[in-house]
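Our preliminary data section would be incomplete without showing what the modeling component actually yields. Below, a chain of 178 amino acids is followed by its predicted structure, encoded as tokens that our downstream tools consume directly.
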Amino acid sequence: MQIKRKLVLPGEEVAAPEEYLVEQGAYLDGVFRASVLGRAVYDPKAHTAVVEPIRGDNYPHNGDIVYCVVTSKGVRALSARCFAKESKNGVEDLKYPVTAYIPPQLVDGRVGVGDYIRAKVVSSHGPPFTLSIRGPSFGVIRAICPRCGSAMRRRGGQLVCPNCGAVDARKIAVGFYV
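Predicted structure:
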């Protein structure tokens, strides 16, 4: 038997649950329906089907590198809003900003509210996604002064505010600080 392919629209019927098990890109609503615009690939021998998206979903996945701004700092975690992710073609904006959090055990250094960070997605589900800034290339890429709110400049291993002279320490992403 030969593998069959068919173009499907979101909401269109892909297969009956008695006939095929749809592994990706579909949801069960009495029958399997496509959740994305894509190509349905049927394997009659294994009785499986997969809906392959035509375009990437532009959504962060486990292992992706994202750029976020820290929105709040709590006892249990940092809260962040992610607005871009790295891809093969460089940095691309996310279609919709997504929320994320960073548990304290995945932060090895200081991060402040309003700081822009480079982080790695470590959860396979979300939003909210779980991020990590462990490692030398992850951390703060632009820091905001806690006193006056202006952008801080890097001077050695510290950050200095050019406006009010405040000195602060942050977990800086090596090679990425603006």
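The chain has two domains: 4-53, 65-168. The longest strand covers residues 90-102. Preliminary results of this kind motivate Aim 1 of the renewal.
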